[in-house]
Amino acid sequence: MCGRLTLSSDYKKVESLLEKKMNVDQIDYFNDLFPNYNGAPTQFFPVLANSNDESHFSFMKWGLIPFWAKDEKIAYKTINARAESVMEKPSFRAAFSKRRCLIAVDGYYEWKKESADKQPYRICLEDESVFALCGLWERWKKPGTESILETFTIITMPSSGPLSSIHDRMPLSISEKLFEVWLTNEFSKKDWEEFFREHSTLFSNFYKVSKSVNYVRNNFPELIERTDG
Hints:
By secondary structure, the chain is α+β, with helices and mostly antiparallel strands. It has 5 helices and 12 strands. The chain has a 5-stranded antiparallel β-sheet, with no helix packed on it. A hairpin with a 2-residue loop joins β3 and β4 (about 55-60).
């Protein structure tokens, strides 16, 4: 499960990571949305998506709505896609084949059961820099209208390394040298299993944060600060 994200970095760091320049309108929109210290499903994040063998940069809503969906309600069930079954699941298989993406973030939260309570942790890279999560995207047209909405889901996999002590699953993140492979490669089932198991980032930087992050309405810098619990 991956249900909360952070992106507290400026747009230039996102541009550098994804190697895509934002236009003026996109920069203004980025500055309206971020920093976001407690990003949740239904919110928008910067995404680099493949489309017709080319990549484009846009802001997409978290919670995948397949092109065939009759309404938006399905998005609440599709914020994550399990790597082990993503090639077969009806909600994801078309997107996995044709519409892959990278979501720019600088951290995410998970909750660990400690005693009778759950302690939130922030998970990020050692230098707390921007990184990319592997995802899928869709372009959905609301029935009876001309309204177009682009949405995404985050691929998750079994946790490995030190992170396993916090949660049994983690989002799939890869190094920049593999971005193009992820966006464009045709995977067999075996190739895909080898890819996500061998090339996933092993997160080792995680720390306790305030339980204030439990409430989506809270969004302030102190949420990503270390705490003793």
